[in-house]
Amino acid sequence: MEEEAERHRVEFASGTAASVANRRSFRDHERNDIEPELPGWPPRRGFAVRGFFGRLGWHARTALAGLLMLPLYVVAEALGSPSSPDKRGKLEERENEVDDFPVMWAGDGETARTLPWQLDPSRRSWRTVTQIELGGPDGLVRMTSYEDTARGNWFVSWGGGGKVPGSETVLWELPRKEITGAEIKSFSMAEADFRISFRDGSWTRLTTTSSDGARRIVALLG
Known about the structure:
Protein name: DUF1579 domain-containing protein
Helix content: 10-25%
Number of strands: 12
Structural class: alpha+beta
Largest sheet: 6 strands, mixed
Organism: Streptomyces siamensis
Strand content: 25-35%
Distance between the termini: 23 Å
Number of helices: 3
């Protein structure tokens, strides 16, 4: 019986420390910005680490959001559906998680630079869903996308949730043997971030929808 491929929703991770929250950078091995060099990528505002007042503002907004959400958490608990803010694990690499937040680390011509721009949620439509496909009989790892039928906007989505017919596309594929390892990155919400390392020394930091999903992806790539 042929082995069936598994699919999991993935995208480039985003920082969670106040200095880099919801931001990501793209670096070479000397930590130079390589974003402008990535062919065919739609432009976006450049990466910058928040200064003191930016971090202060982020903490204030986060605290306010937590207070506003607290009644919902209480109601959910009372109804028997535990719901609480995601927890973040231990800081592992300050230089890559607080002082900077690279999600692509690659020199000229290295594998991580070939990853599709659709993995960046700040560049694609909010209806575009990106997935990783693993464990198929052909030994390839793929990135695919499709358009979701959900209605709403960047901030709120309701209804739908199906796949627009004919919208599925293969964005990227690589022989599994070109991947040398994968690991969970604890300093992320619900520990849903993971790093994939390639044979040429490049790597990427991605995230998925849950810690269980991240562990499953890492197990399949391990």
